[in-house]
Design a protein that fits this description.
This protein has about 425 residues and is an alpha/beta fold. The protein contains twelve helices and 18 strands. The structure holds inosinic acid.
Length: about 425
């Protein structure tokens, strides 16, 4: 049976929530494999709106939901999210929810450090979500993280805490902050441990069993490829690998289990936080895209930066993530524009003054910041695409736009989403029936 891996192919906020919910309703298990509670997935089921940051989207419908080892887990944020969902009538127990016992924890000291660094960085700040994501991943690769399994061994945590606190105390001193309050930290961990441990297990084992039984697994990516720590707009990225390959390493299943890779692509471009954005529009058009697309962050409420569709970036994301097909979202936001533009290449002036044309996004941050987009302009469409459920419902120019996008990104369109309603979707190819 086919599995599906969903990833964002831009800077996140591509509208993954609706697509993931639709796929989750047909999956037997949903797995988060990277990121943490920096993500914001909004699901609308009936009249109820669910806002998820950490829990896999399947949980709302009672589907087996798994947090893989590639995620960084804030136990207090987890508890708050579970309590909120329980209040909305969602049932969460160890039968339908599991957390990898080798998952690193986000601690209050990580949140502190995230805030201290951003506060001190001035104009050079990354614009993080302030959730402690980066510092927690640093401690994971620095081999000093406290992990979920450690919560069952709190009396034996001394030497680990020595290493962790030695590192953080030095950093905190640099910011004029007092050392970590170890006694308070242990106390907080002791208090939260039973709550987390009821869900903890070696999830690779559970997934192996689920897979053997022929279940359909949905791997739910967070953020987007352009925020990937290797392939994104470094250093203005998140601290995890957001590409499809992480679905395997971040869950404990092999790379042959990721199945159909569905790249979620917005019909224009947005970004929250700092960093290069070649097609950004700081004018009325950008304002109009933001207003029509309700472009405000789900997690932080920040206003998103908006711009035209960048085919160079999406082609690159699709190649890097091995995208099988894309889901094109929010096409209706472009309704009514006289002209629409697509970026098809960049001009970059080298240090020798010679201008080169690039068909890819360069790696160096100064080059990323100075490339100038080359646009192709197309006629827009007057009629609305909102709510379209078949090609016949779409204006001819909108179809031309989709076809041009598909051609330029060298990846087929698997579905087009035309409103937040689940039924308002044009299905070209079902990812689960690949
Ligand atoms: P962090 O993940 O909090 O460290 O933030 C690093 C960068 O990733 C910042 O530019 C954030 O705005 C961005 N980011 C993190 N999570 C999301 C998301 O879910 N959607 C869009 N941007 C995100």
């Amino acid at each position: 049976m086919a599995n599906v891996t969903v990833i964002g192919a831009q800077w996140g906020d591509e509208g993954k929530g609706k697509i993931v919910d639709w796929l989750a309703s047909r999956a037997d298990a949903v797995v988060r494999f990277q990121g943490g509670h920096n993500a914001g997935h909004t699901l609308v089921v009936g009249n109820e709106v669910y806002k998820l940051s950490l829990l896999p989207s399947g949980i709302v419908r009672g589907t087996l939901s798994i947090i893989g080892n590639g995620v960084v887990l804030d136990p207090w944020a987890l508890k708050a999210e579970i309590e909120k969902l329980t209040g909305q009538g969602v049932t969460i127990h160890s039968e339908n929810f599991a957390i990898a016992d080798n998952c690193p924890l986000i601690l209050p000291l990580h949140r502190d450090l995230d805030g201290l660094r951003e506060g001190a960085a001035g104009a050079g700040k990354i614009g993080t979500t302030g959730r402690g994501i980066g510092p927690a991943y640093e401690d994971k690769v620095g081999r000093r993280a406290i992990r979920v399994c450690d919560l069952a061994h709190l009396d034996a945590l001394d030497s680990q805490l020595d290493r962790l606190c030695a590192h953080h105390d030095a950093l905190r001193a640099g910011f004029g902050q007092p050392p970590v309050d170890r006694a308070a930290l242990i106390e907080e961990l002791r208090e939260i441990a039973p709550f987390v441990l009821q869900f903890a297990q070696p999830v690779w084992k559970r997934l192996k069993k689920v897979r053997k039984a022929g279940a359909r697994i949905l791997f739910e990516g967070a953020q987007g490829v352009l925020l990937d720590v290797d392939h994104g707009t470094y250093p203005f990225v998140t601290s995890s690998n957001t590409v499809s390959g992480t679905a395997a390493s971040g869950s404990g299943l092999g790379p042959n289990s990721t199945g159909f890779v569905l790249g979620i692509v917005k019909a224009y471009t947005t970004r929250v936080g700092s960093g290069p954005f070649p097609t950004e529009l700081e004018d009325e058009t950008g304002q109009k895209l933001g207003e029509r697309g309700h472009e405000f962050g789900t997690v932080t409420g920040r206003k998103r930066r908006c711009g035209w569709f960048d085919a160079v970036l999406v082609r690159q994301s699709c190649a890097i993530s091995g995208v099988t097909g894309i889901a094109l979202t929010k096409l209706d936001v472009l309704d009514g524009f006289d002209k629409v533009r697509i970026c098809t290449g960049y001009r970059l002036r080298g240090s020798d003054g010679v201008v080169k044309v690039l068909d890819y996004f360069p790696s160096h941050s100064a080059d990323q910041a100075s490339v100038e987009p080359i646009y192709e302009e197309m006629d827009g469409w007057k009629d609305t695409t909102a709510g379209a459920r078949s090609w016949a419902d779409l204006p001819a120019q909108a179809i031309k736009y989709i076809q041009r996008v598909q051609e330029l990104i060298e990846t087929p369109v698997a579905l087009v989403s035309t409103s937040p309603e689940r039924e308002d979707t044009i299905l070209v190819r079902d990812p689960f029936v690949d």
